[in-house]
Amino acid sequence: MPEKTADEPHAKRRGWLRNLNPPGDFSTAPRCGARTRRGAPCGSPAVRGKKRCRMHGGRSTGPRTAAGLARIKQAHWKHGRFSAEAREEAAHFRELLRECKEIERLLVRELR
Ligand SMILES: [Zn+2]
Fold it and tell me: What's the mean pLDDT in 29-37?
């Protein structure tokens, strides 16, 4: 049982809450940043140690099985323009273009 505080009804109380939750200002708790259907951040208190509230995946531990991981990877895949493969290919073509420009520059110089 918490200790009896001052007689004033709104006196500052100290110590643990009756439900054994830690004391503190709950209004300063980190807020959920998930986008709602209105486009604004959710704003509900985030699950402790997480960035999302209980309704937006804060309790989720993420995919665990190989099949689940593959499914999530596939669901997040948009077009592959920034995949390692696509970046490598783009770098290859840039290098080819650089070589072509160099050859062109040498040929133009030779013809003059
Ligand atoms: Zn939320």
Answer: 94
Statement: the pTM of the whole predicted model exceeds 0.90:
no
User: How far, in Å, from the CA of 95 to the mean position of ligand 1?
Assistant: 46
Ligand 1 center–CA 61 separation, angstroms: 16
Q: How far is the CA of 107 from the centre of ligand 1 (A)?
A: 63
The whole-angstrom separation of Cα 37 and Cα 45 is 18
Report the SS3 class of residue 67: helix
Residue range 55-83, pLDDT digits in tens: 999 999 999 999 999 999 999 999 999 99
Interatomic CA distance for residues 41 and 33, integer angstroms: 5
